[in-house]
């Protein structure tokens, strides 16, 4: 980028980042009459009042308990449903444009986060691939700037053949000021070397010494157990090779670690072996056009996907992942919503909706799914003042035209997305 272009961009960014500050005008907005699902998993609040000011929730409750402040601007939300904004605890940001990777830039991070936001994803924890451009963009996390999702980052995915090599990456990430650390312990279906236990133990230890939590990409049940024993703070994917067993369940509960299903990650490996049904879904087409998906309609490329052993394996093991999700939910393991979207062919925003629908297919109730994408995601990813609709939290929420507790597909019926109390402009 040329120097002058950089200045213009910086100016633009500072305008975007500061947008909320001048609006510190002490004015209240009250949303009245809606049914509110606050993210905690309890009974919804009917005929509710939600009062916000300066991007944060001032009060929330029934109209009997919460008054509308004088001079508040009132938004009549009668007949509507309000739920917290969706938190994707495992996404990636900045690399993808259309279905292509390799576009990492400040502008593309902003564009990606805006796409997420228009689909109701108000926070993204990017678990790897984050570069220095992402660092200042996290300023939204402490403001009510709008039009894009809040961002947390894990920096570079930690790799290394020796503890020293891996620890060098930790140092680099720490210097950058990441929010999480991330490792991969996987052999990609036996096709590549897996990080050794000696190395990941050293990585987890060092990360903890520096005060970081560590998320792990894993695949196999045996690795997941070893990682839990070694102190991993987050399992960033489903266990996919085998049904989870009693030892795993006891371990993950005892360690109080979040479990992130990423079912759409599996879907993305094989679904393009044919013309994906969702290509004609109007909700998909709101953000992704025909030109974008054109290469995926090519019969030769579809044949290649169908012939891929990896695609076949992932497809075969998806039912195991789904059954494991249901087992773990039933056992009271904290399910933390995430998709691994923001990788080429995993469509940001839309895949979060699909993920929720696949979780429902796996047997979770809409309330369990919503809780995983709100309270659990904030709690297990350590995101301050986010997740539930509570006094003092950021006013990140969705207004829906239909009840998401009746059918998780109703999350598609977005009437408004609010981040820090300000409405996100949407395309329809
Ligand atoms: Zn990932």
TrEMBL record:
A Pfam match: Amidohydro_1
Record-level Gene Ontology MF annotations: hydrolase activity, acting on carbon-nitrogen (but not peptide) bonds
InterPro entries per the UniProt record, alphabetical: Amidohydro-rel (IPR006680), Metal-dep_hydrolase_composite (IPR011059), Metal_Hydrolase (IPR032466), Metallo-dep_Hydrolase (IPR051781)
Segments forming domain Amidohydrolase-related: 81-424
Gene3D superfamilies linked to this entry: Metal-dependent hydrolases, Urease, subunit C, domain 1
Transmembrane segments: none
Protein name per Swiss-Prot or TrEMBL: Organophopsphate acid anhydrase
Organism, as annotated: Persicitalea jodogahamensis
